[in-house]
Write a structure and sequence with these properties.
binds adenosine-5'-diphosphate; rod-shaped; five-stranded mixed sheet; 452 residues; 12 strands; five-stranded antiparallel sheet; 58% helix; 10 helices
Length: 452
């Protein structure tokens, strides 16, 4: 029982079976009881009727008449007085004999059904005492053959049996449809997740509607696509890290070997040593970025907020980045018209804004402008960095905040990105309880809006 289809079918069968058996037994019993009650009532009514006629007109003719009336059909009458049997509609001697037995031990005024057991007895029997004021008294004994009731029971059993078989067939058809509709997609999903766990992310699941199964299938499909993308990104990232690290290392080894040579003058040694320091710093920055990323994965970094004025803070930042903007001949306009206080971690905020400005500069052409706006809106601080650079394709916008994600790999090779910056920004903004949004048009520029 380890296949879901079998389990499902078993539960389904058992549940419907219990319900069906219960309903059938209930119906069967009810129909039978009603039918036998009708027979009893009819027998008692005709017995009482004969008795009334007898009491009203007690004569031999009446007695013969009564016996004659019941001589056809499956009902019999036997009329008895103190001496014995005086009339009967039947020639069956055994039946006539039994009549005496039936009335012998009865209490004086017993009336009604005396034998009701239609299952084992050939007749149901009712007795009706009569009293003639100045004459005899006795019983009208009525017999009704139980054959019609038994026939009815047989018919009922046949019908219920047929209904049972039919409903089993219907159940089986429902099971087949259910297992197709329900279990097939489930089995496919199971196979897909097995493939995923074996490292094969090339999974394609059919769309199975808008219900929970459809959603689950969609989630698995998305998971597979994400995993596939992450795998490629990771490999590319590792390759680029290796490349990024190997370049400064080559310089370090090369220049330190040269710096160790005999016969170099002080000026030359200084020159080589400064290159070594520069390259070591580059490596340090890269490793710091990687560490930041690793810390964020473990969420071990902390944010210590303090109140500070925005205008001096952003003016300092402008001074800090201006040299690199000037070098590329890109104009940086800082708009922080109203000075106000902000509650944030100044170091982390600097990291956020520097990353955004760094990207804006990196992806802008020469002689363009980048704008940094800072203002308050509904008690929140909005920091907005706008450039008129190369922009981001709309289908990639959803991913740029993911770790290691880079738009067009060739771009990053040209611009030297590693796909970490925006992931770091997003984590830092969220650690402040804020949010970040991006609007971008390919070829026209981008705008990043941080709300804290
Ligand atoms: P990277 O170090 O590669 O710049 P980021 O995480 O900072 O990594 O950015 C992710 C991707 O988003 C980059 O590959 C880049 O193509 C794109 N991007 C980020 N900022 C901008 C921008 N201002 N203009 C155009 N593209 C951008």
């Amino acid at each position: 029982m380890n296949r879901i289809s079998i389990k499902l079918a078993a539960y389904f069968f058992i549940a419907v079976l219990i319900m069906e058996v219960f309903l059938m037994v209930y119906l069967h019993q009810n129909i039978l009881e009603e039918r036998t009650d009708e027979e009893y009532a009819r027998l008692v009514a005709s017995g009482a009727n004969h008795r009334d006629v007898l009491e009203d007109n007690y004569s031999n003719t009446t007695i013969e008449h009564i016996a004659l009336m019941e001589s056809d059909g499956d009902r019999e009458v036997v009329i008895i007085n103190r001496q014995g049997i005086i009339a009967s509609s039947s020639d069956d001697h055994l039946l006539i004999e039994q009549s005496l037995k039936h009335v012998r031990n009865l209490a004086a005024n017993t009336e009604g059904i005396v034998i009701a057991d239609w299952k084992s007895s050939p007749y149901i029997v009712s007795v009706h005492p009569y009293h003639i004021a100045s004459g005899p008294s006795g019983y009208v004994v009525m017999y009704q053959s139980t054959e019609p009731i038994k026939l009815l029971v047989n018919k009922l059993n046949l019908h219920f049996g047929l209904a049972g078989v039919t409903s089993f067939v219907v159940l089986f058809i429902i099971y087949a449809i259910l297992s197709k509709l329900l279990t097939r997609p489930l089995i496919r999903m199971k196979e897909a997740t097995e493939k995923l766990s074996n490292g094969d992310f090339n999974v394609s699941l059919p769309v199975v509607g808008n219900d929970e199964l459809g959603e689950l299938s969609g989630s698995i499909q998305k998971l597979a696509t994400d995993l596939e993308r992450l795998k490629t990104e990771r490999n590319e990232f590792l390759a680029s890290i290796a490349h990024e690290l190997s370049t400064p290392l080559t310089y370090l080894i090369g220049y330190s070997t040269i710096a160790m040579r005999q016969g170099l003058n002080e000026q030359e040694r200084q020159h080589y040593l400064s290159i070594i320091v520069e390259e070591s710093n580059r490596m340090k920055d890269l490793v710091k970025n990687l560490l930041d990323l690793a810390k964020m994965d473990e969420t071990t970094f902390t944010v210590s907020k303090e109140l500070f004025w925005t205008r001096p803070f952003f003016e300092d930042m402008q001074r800090l980045v201006e040299p690199s903007f000037n070098m590329k001949n890109v104009q940086l306009a800082v708009r922080c018209d109203v000075d106000f206080q902000i509650l944030a971690d100044p170091l982390r905020l600097e990291q956020i804004v520097l990353n955004l400005l760094d990207n804006a500069l990196k992806y802008s052409a020469e002689e363009t402008e980048v704008t940094l706006e800072v203002y308050q809106k509904k008690e929140k601080t909005v920091i907005r960095v706008t450039d008129v650079g190369m922009g981001i394709p709309s289908e990639e916008l959803a991913f740029i905040f993911e770790k290691l994600y880079r738009v067009e790999k060739s771009r990053s090779r040209t611009f030297g990105g590693t796909g970490i910056g925006l992931a770091v920004v997003k984590e830092l903004v969220e650690a402040h309880g804020g949010s970040i949004e991006v609007e971008s048009t390919l070829g026209k520029g981008s705008r990043f809006t941080v709300t804290l």
